[in-house]
Amino acid sequence: MYQATTDKKWIKDIPDGGILTPKGFKCSGVHAGLRYNKLDLGLIVSETPASCAAVYTTSHFQAAPLVVTQESIAREGVLQAVIVNSACANACTGDQGYRDALKMRELTAAKFGLPEHYVAVASTGVIGEFLQMEKIEAGIAKLAIGNDQEDETNFQTAILTTDLVTKHACYSAEIDGRTVSVGGVAKGSGMIHPNMATMLGFLTTDANISSEALANALKEVTNTTFNQITVDGDTSTNDMVLVMANGEAGNRPLHPEHPEWPVFIELLTESCASLAKQIARDGEGATKLIEISVSGALSDEEARMIGKQIAGSNLVKTAIYGADANWGRIIGAIGQSEASVNANNVDIAFGDITMLKKSTPMAFDEENAREYLMNDKVEIFVNLNLGDGQGMAWGCDLSYDYVKINASYRT
């Protein structure tokens, strides 16, 4: 289960950090003309070949860039660059879309003198439209990588669609006496309901770790972070979280038997959890972040299941938007879950205001509850009183603006 660890001495939060904080990475973002007047093409490059791992959408309609990225990683488990465009998802575009994704990989490799299979490809935007390849080619020619704050800001901006803000995170710790950092950026605002949504996450680390160990770590961490957020219950065709590890920190190779393996897992978890919460908070039309903490479940998996059921409930989301302390909406969501529940022994609280104790309604001050629900972050606590399982999930409220944004997404 994800739990905040920033109070632990060995984990350091770097508020201004991101993908360039780990040693040996550069990036760029340019305007290729896919969007009217916004940056729309970005690139991350490791100065040396990097171990890599990725997780992808479970949609049956995986977009062409994901197919190409999986083919790249399958060759050697090594990457050195990832090219990303916004505005067009290049999804459901058939053979032409696949050829276009391959062309993006080819052009990027040629530009920076890399083997083609050292390049990953990602796209986000409207489904069912073809990439404007002349603009993509011209944009790749314009890319000039650097390692200052402007370069990172440009990359963060280039990958956005309906997002209102950029999203970044970074944490560091000592491993084998060396400073190891994990930094990340993400985009995502709507169509967010990952199992692996439209959501893209890119992480860099200077840790020395094999691709196999990195893949195991990413899978473990993704299940408790990115896969525990939901904005609108829809899963995209293009979701991907990708991490590159170039070993520049100089630590001994990390693996599950390494004595400081848990420290690396915490670094990766903190970075992914921070990005996941930022995505949930920036949900289309959202005014509040909702954080659900579930305890007392039979297992961590069942706790996460219930947390996500609550976070994804439109009735819960609209109640929070309206600052209505209707705990019955929480009960309704829990009741739909496939997890084990004793209907006579559930506790529910909004913040420190207890609503239900052992399934018995508790007296509370409606005005105090309403005032609490007006905050921009609302915490919901559920105790099932069945076991030791714990889990968290994140979502956002559902406002009128969500309908407005998505009713005119293509225009």
Automatic annotation (TrEMBL):
Gene Ontology CC annotations of this record: cytoplasm
Localization per Swiss-Prot or TrEMBL: Cytoplasm
Residue sites binding substrate per the record: T161, K187, T198, E284, N406, T411
GO molecular function (one): L-glutamate N-acetyltransferase activity, acting on acetyl-L-ornithine as donor
Top-level taxon of origin: Bacteria
Oligomeric form and interacting partners: Heterotetramer of two alpha and two beta chains.
HAMAP family hit by this protein: ArgJ
Name by which UniProt lists this protein: Arginine biosynthesis bifunctional protein ArgJ
Protein species of origin: Mesobacillus subterraneus
